[in-house]
Amino acid sequence: MATELEELVEFLSSPSPPVKKAAVEIVSGLTGSEEGLQSLSKYSEILLPSLSRLLSESKEVSEPSAQALVNLSQNSELAGKMIQMGLIRVAMDMLYKPESCITRLLVMLLVNLTQLDDGVASLLQIEDEKMRGLHIMKLVRSFCRSSGETADDQFEHVGSILVNISKTEDGRKMLLEPKRGLLKQIIRQFDSTNQLRKKGVAGTIRNCSFEAKNQLENILLISEFLWPALLLPVAGSKIYSEEDISKMPPELGSALAIEREPVTDADIRVQTLEAIYLIILQEAGRRAFWSVNGPRILQVGYEYEEDSKVMRAYEQVGSLVCSTLYLSISLDHWLTLLDLRKITLLVLGCLILNQLVEESGGPEESPSEPTKADS
Length: 375
Description:
Elements: H1 4-11, H2 17-30, H3 34-41, H4 44-54, H5 59-72, H6 76-84, H7 87-95, H8 103-113, H9 117-124, H10 134-145, H11 158-165, H12 169-176, H13 182-187, H14 195-208, H15 212-220, H16 223-231, H17 242-246, H18 250-256, H19 266-280, H20 283-291, H21 294-304, H22 308-322, H23 327-337, H24 340-350, H25 353-360
Helix pairs in contact: 2-5, 4-5, 5-8, 7-8, 8-11, 11-14, 14-19, 19-22, 21-23, 22-24
């Protein structure tokens, strides 16, 4: 004899619109609790295809269906089943249908599904040579064209998707392909006042910087946008002197010549410093960093930094700077900033930093826990 939950799941396929609407609303409500998620997961073989089919119906049915899928996809086992049944393709198809009214929820679903490597591969369309990268190009275009300055930012969570895909080598290579120009488009969103967008962009740049050893030329092709995105968050809020500004490109100097709002999110500041570190591990990266007066900017930023986690990231970069041939040029600046004990620690630290990066570094995972929809 069928249980109440089994009957509820079967009602999702009812030919009666009122019955179907009532059933999906109940299911959506159940997914809002851990107990409900566990109970429904027992019927996933029937539940997930039924909810997927309802995404194409009217808003009163498709919205609770999408909410349920977002919440269910917090469970990695259920997310894996969704990926196997082709839900990423379904979500992308629905996302760009003119009549779709669940854009935000579909994007949130993609965030959760791309926390799994199989989900990343599916979104990148790795195995389809002709269509490879089409989904990502569409998402990046939507991310960049939509406004991040409104309360209802439908595509703000795309930043989290980009972090997820850039934790894989295939994802990083795709974002760095010069012909696609995806990273150049993404990086310009760093100016957004939307913190979720800004954090997604910072995490994506940081992850892509792990390709600096082999793709530094492609990374530096967008220096005009790269260095402002990496250095302004860690430059402090003081107005720089004319002498300092004269040694910077216009895109940096003009921003540092005026008062500006500081980047208050410590994670963003850490991510940008880690990206700088990865880039200046390469000789050409160090030259580019010095050409924009990078050491001076970090010196000033460190002076005003109060967060211990961010200070350690500054010191990681500083130790690398101190270990290069450019030490003689910058030593006076660093000695005025740091006491002898810190200098000693930094120089000693540079001897083991590469080993530490190998042991604990790597492209960053998703910037947050799996996304949950509000029922």
